[in-house]
Design goal:
Blueprint: H1 2-9, H2 12-37, H3 45-64, E1 70-71, E2 75-76, H4 77-96, H5 98-108, H6 114-140, H7 143-148
Antiparallel strand pairs: 1-2
Helix pairs in contact: 2-3, 2-6, 3-6, 4-6
């Protein structure tokens, strides 16, 4: 009963951030399970744990970035949030872990170039975080509407 009361009294921004983090954790948990089921965990255990903690972190950023709904130069921020912020976060992830990702790609699929790896991570980041942003925006809103709740 106390948890329901606590949840009911939370601000919409906190709820949005919490649900974005939960959705990010679900994505990372699926990736972590995939690592274990396919036998790549033994070779890439640090990368598996890194991915498990990476997506909830970016989920928090998805939740908190919901306050940005208009940019003075770019206009409506909904599309720019997931293109700029989240695609760039996955770009940074691949830059830090280029070699483990390349080795994993060679084990799983085929030999990939670094350019393909970087572009793939940007597209993957934009798609996943667009979906999470769409879900939490539909439920809790964005911008001034989010701050009034």
């Amino acid at each position: 009963m106390k948890l329901k009361k606590i949840y009911k009294n939370m601000s919409a921004l906190l709820k949005r951030t919490m649900w974005a983090k939960i959705l990010g954790f679900i994505v990372s948990l699926l990736a972590f399970i995939w690592f274990i089921m396919n036998g790549y965990y033994t070779d890439n255990s640090m990368m598996a744990w890194g991915i498990l903690f990476w997506y909830p972190l970016v989920g928090v950023m998805v939740g908190l970035s919901g306050t940005m709904d208009k940019h003075p130069l770019l206009g409506k921020m909904t599309i720019w949030r997931w293109i700029i912020l989240w695609a760039s976060m996955n770009f940074v992830l691949v830059l830090f872990a280029m070699e483990p990702f390349s080795l994993l790609a060679m084990q799983v699929w085929f030999d990939v170039t670094h350019t393909f790896m970087i572009l793939g991570s940007i597209i993957e980041g934009a798609i996943i975080w667009w979906a999470i942003d769409w879900i939490v925006t539909a439920k809790f809103g964005e911008g001034k509407k989010l701050m009034k709740k």
